């Protein structure tokens, strides 16, 4: 493994995934982790990330004691570069001139990192502090007009530092530099592939669950589907999937889970029709957080009841494991403990009751979403499931602004199906991260349709592009696609007489309206 030590970087996740793109497994650890604990993970290399602090500020995160004595090859990036320089006796200074954005580095001495690369390279910088003097034993490999030590290395000790960000796209040769560090500098081999991951995870689940039984809540989304397919490969019939139809799904989704998924995997599926129960629980509720809490709570209750039934039904053999499609970003975010503000209560995290009687199996907890998709393909899941856009656990419940009713759900489901159909027809599915359609159920506007006055509801189209849903931009859908969607929705969905497009990025908006 390659450890990415997080100094509060914007880019720690990105560094980890770039390393994986080099077919080397990587994980993020906090900068507060003691060096011995890092060593216990037997890293082949350690990457020190960037961060917002100044190394000489009071309270700035520093390298753990003894880190540089571990005899593990290291690459410092930006703040990590400065931490390395300072810890080993170099000098870090504050400059009046910041360097944000594109810059050009001149390679002074290719050393190992820049070997075979051009003498001038476009790089991405984001700093004010800089290393003014490299530590003894280091060669300065690159510099820019404002940054004398933009690259340095001590080849004998396997220490490398760069002031710029090799992980971002705008750094022309960033991936080559990373690869050179991993393969040449640290001797990593590019052996981490999807085939290995699938085989290894299946084996790991088999070992862990043994001859016991497991249960999994299928949402219809990619994550739970891939997790379930993987566990099913490992333990076959001893896995039972529970699909709670809460009535807040989109058109065709319950069928997709009940037919396509079962056809592809042959999994044991237990469907619970809880539509009435959720409607009753949501009756008259308009507050978004309230809705989320109710949906989360009901979901867990229904799931628990189903689990009890399954346990009772199967020759008294108890279910001991609960499969969840937790992904790496979820793990990192919840473990971060940075006191991030609670923007929305997500119904699939932290919702399980205290007296949870299951042990968790989370076969995807080291993977990113795109890796999960590739794994899903590897496991033979259909493209409609693998490439499905993310859909929130609380479903259409948080896309109806106002109280949720059966009628409103039907209206939104129809409008949403049209938008999705047209997006697919335009061949844009994979360009658009997500395409919520939101029903403003308590708003009415006047329209004219078929020579008559109408007083209907608007829907809002919310197509966004994103890498990870943490930030997003509104998608510039072609006008003709928007126009087709608008015409069809107003023609085909009786209650809708107006279609609006949301052109807010995240931040300040969130992707969902509630
Ligand atoms: P927001 O609206 O916060 O959403 O920008 C970010 C991403 O998370 C999805 N989302 C959820 N997913 N349970 C989920 O599984 C939830 O409760 C939930 N709420 C929002 C949202 O669709 C987007 O992809």
Folded structure, characterized:
It is an enzyme of class 6 (ligase). Keywords: ATP-binding, Glutamine amidotransferase, GMP biosynthesis, Ligase, Nucleotide-binding, Purine biosynthesis. This is GMP synthase [glutamine-hydrolyzing]. By secondary structure, the chain is of the alpha/beta class. It has three domains: 184 residues, Class I glutamine amidotransferase (GATase) domain (Rossmann fold, 3-Layer(aba) Sandwich), CATH 3.40.50.880; 193 residues, HUPs (Rossmann fold); 103 residues, 2-Layer Sandwich (GMP Synthetase, Chain A, domain 3), CATH 3.30.300.10. It has 14 helices and 21 strands. The strands form four sheets. The chain has a nine-stranded mixed sheet, sandwiched between helices. A five-stranded parallel sheet has the order 12-11-10-13-14, sandwiched between helices. Helix 6 packs across helix 11. It is globular and about 80 Å long. The structure holds xanthosine-5'-monophosphate. Xanthosine-5'-monophosphate (XMP) binds next to loops.
The average pLDDT score comes to 91
CATH architecture of the largest domain: 3-Layer(aba) Sandwich
| Name of the CATH class of the largest domain | Alpha Beta
**What are the bound molecules?**
xanthosine-5'-monophosphate
The residue fraction in helices comes out at 25-40%
* Estimated radius of gyration: 26 Å
Subunit structure: Homodimer.
Function: Catalyzes the synthesis of GMP from XMP.
Organism: Actinomadura yumaensis
Catalytic activity: XMP + L-glutamine + ATP + H2O = GMP + L-glutamate + AMP + diphosphate + 2 H(+)
């Amino acid at each position: 493994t390659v450890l990415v030590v997080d100094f509060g970087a914007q880019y720690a996740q990105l560094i980890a995934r770039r390393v994986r793109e080099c077919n080397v497994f990587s994980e993020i650890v906090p900068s507060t982790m003691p060096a011995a604990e890092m060593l216990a993970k037997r890293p082949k290399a350690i990457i020190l990330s960037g961060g917002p602090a100044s190394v000489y500020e009071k309270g700035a995160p520093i390298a753990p004691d003894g880190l540089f004595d571990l005899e593990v090859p290291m690459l410092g990036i930006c703040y990590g570069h400065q931490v390395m320089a300072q810890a080993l006796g170099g000098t870090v200074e504050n400059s009046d001139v910041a360097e944000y954005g594109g810059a050009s580095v001149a390679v002074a001495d290719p050393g190992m990192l820049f070997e075979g690369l051009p003498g001038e390279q476009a790089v991405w910088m984001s700093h004010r502090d800089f290393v003014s003097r490299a530590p003894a034993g280091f060669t300065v490999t690159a510099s820019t007009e404002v940054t004398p030590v933009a690259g340095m290395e001590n080849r004998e000790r396997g220490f490398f530092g760069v002031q710029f960000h090799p992980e971002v796209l705008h750094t022309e040769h960033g991936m080559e530099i990373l690869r050179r560090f991993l393969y040449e500098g640290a001797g990593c081999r590019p052996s981490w592939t999807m085939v290995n991951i699938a085989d290894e995870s299946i084996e790991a689940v088999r070992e862990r669950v043994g001859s016991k039984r497991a249960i999994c809540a299928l949402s219809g989304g990619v994550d739970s589907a891939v997790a379930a397919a993987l566990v099913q490969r490992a333990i076959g019939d001893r896995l039972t999937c529970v699909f709670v139809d809460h009535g807040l799904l989109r058109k065709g989704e319950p069928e997709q889970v009940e037919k396509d998924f079962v056809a592809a995997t042959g999994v044991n599926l237990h469907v619970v029709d809880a539509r009435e129960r959720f409607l009753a629980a949501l009756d008259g509720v308009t507050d978004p957080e309230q809705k989320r809490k109710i949906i989360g709570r009901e979901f867990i209750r229904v799931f628990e009841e189903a689990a009890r039934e399954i346990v009772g039904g199967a020759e008294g053999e108890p279910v001991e494991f609960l499969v969840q499609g937790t992904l790496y970003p979820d793990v990192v975010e919840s473990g971060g403990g940075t006191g991030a503000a609670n923007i929305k209560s997500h119904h699939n995290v932290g919702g399980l009751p205290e007296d949870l009687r299951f042990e968790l199996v989370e076969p995807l907890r080291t993977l990113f979403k795109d890796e999960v998709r590739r794994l899903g393909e590897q496991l033979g899941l259909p493209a409609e499931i693998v490439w499905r856009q993310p859909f929130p656990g609380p479903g259409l419940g948080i896309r109806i602004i106002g109280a949720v009713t059966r009628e409103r759900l039907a209206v939104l489901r129809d409008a949403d199906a049209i938008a999705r159909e047209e997006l697919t027809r335009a061949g844009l599915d994979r360009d658009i991260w997500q395409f919520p359609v939101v029903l403003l159920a308590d708003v009415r506007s006047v329209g004219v349709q078929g020579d008559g006055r109408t007083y209907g509801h608007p829907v809002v189209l919310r197509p966004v592009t994103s890498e990870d849903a943490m930030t997003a931009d509104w998608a510039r859908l072609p006008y003709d696609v928007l126009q087709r969607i608008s015409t069809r929705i107003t023609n085909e969905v009786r209650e809708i007489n107006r279609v609006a497009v949301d052109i807010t990025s995240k931040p300040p908006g969130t992707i969902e309206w509630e």
